[in-house]
Specification:
The protein is an alpha+beta fold. The protein has one domain: FAD/NAD(P)-binding domain (3-Layer(bba) Sandwich), CATH 3.50.50. It has helices at 9-20, 45-53, 91-99, 182-188, 234-250, 254-283, 296-306, 312-320, and strands at 2-5, 25-28, 42-44, 63-66, 69-74, 77-83, 86-89, 116-119, 136-144, 152-156, 163-169, 172-179, 194-203, 212-213, 216-218, 308-309. Strands 13-9-12-11-10-5-6-16 form an 8-stranded mixed sheet. A 5-stranded mixed sheet has the order 2-1-8-15-14, covered by helices on one side. Strands 3-7-4 form a 3-stranded antiparallel sheet. It starts with a strand and ends with a helix. The protein binds flavin-adenine dinucleotide. Flavin-adenine dinucleotide binds at residues 5-11, 28-31, 38-43, 108-109, 120-124, 126, 139, 141, 176, 200, 202, 220-222, 226, 231-234, 237.
Amino acid sequence: MIRIAGLGVSGAYLYRRLSNAGFKVTAFDPKREGFYLPCGYALNENVARTYLKLINLEVEDYVESRAHNIIFQSGNREIEFKSLGLCTVDKNRLLSDLLGNLPFERRKAPAERDVVTVDATGISRSILGPIGNDFTMHTKEYLTSTASHHEFYFRYFSKGHGYYWEFPLGDHFHVGAGSDVLQLINSSLNVKGSLKVASRNIRLKPALQDIFRENVVGVGESIGTVSPITGEGIMPAMESAELLFQNLTKYENFSELSSNYSTDIIKTFRRYEVLYSLLENARKGKILKLSNLIRYPAVREDFRHFGINLTLYSVAKTLIGK
Ligand SMILES: Cc1cc2nc3c(=O)[nH]c(=O)nc-3n(C[C@H](O)[C@H](O)[C@H](O)COP(=O)(O)OP(=O)(O)OC[C@H]3O[C@@H](n4cnc5c(N)ncnc54)[C@H](O)[C@@H]3O)c2cc1C
């Protein structure tokens, strides 16, 4: 028997994989029906395709808008990158299809010591408990019918204080901002006529060394599988859930399970530790340090994973002139 606490992307995906493979699972999530998820709904459809196929879903059925050129603004300059599959999806419908008719209890997961419990509770990390020196940013996001850009648009705040975004979503847009400085969020968001507004913190510090305790093992944002520089967390959550699924099919013994899963998580998400140290440097005003250049491959890999073809050439072209 396996118990899953939390049915966001990571918990719902894992639940579907486990029940298709014949595992006995109980699942809990107190979220009320129709709850509007605070998320930009952006992902790389080429990455999503691989995982959704494993549960007989097609990513194309959920795509709302595809990116062509992606605009990054820094000061007065705009840099354009090509898309490698960045799109927005109907995340609410995707989540509902991940779960299908699988039963779950609409309440917080109770404490029990005799079953393997998966902490898929995201930012709250309700079951694993708090992490020392955690780092999160505040976010606020609007669903709107207009936006000043009709392409995917990012404007980074200086010194690693987060960014403002506009993402097309079918006939609508998600317009939001994330920062550790509330004033930056409020001053950048000048939204009129919003249809919905949602807000929560996002964990940007990877907790890859802190992913299990007693009979509890974490997946997704509870263990910090969120890019510290782009905030991408949907596909990383699903990827971590797939790693846990693979290990659950191999190991019955919890200590073997946790140690092998740990190794897989560290191998897959090591770049987040590199990127978090880059974020820390930026926050200390050390972004121009030469040592940051050696982190460029991790930056490039991370943007490409999100579906953005970041190239030094595009950056240089904009800074030096076309
Ligand atoms: C404003 C914003 C915009 C974002 N935009 C993007 C984006 O465009 N693209 C992208 O890739 N990522 C984005 N992210 C990040 C991404 O949304 C998350 O990292 C990802 O959804 C995490 O998935 P998860 O399954 O780990 O956790 P969640 O999706 O947060 O799910 C956790 C679930 O656990 C439940 N829960 C909490 N406590 C308990 C408990 N005690 N018992 C049982 N259940 C519990 C909650 O109700 C929730 O349903 C964004 C995040 C924010 C905040």
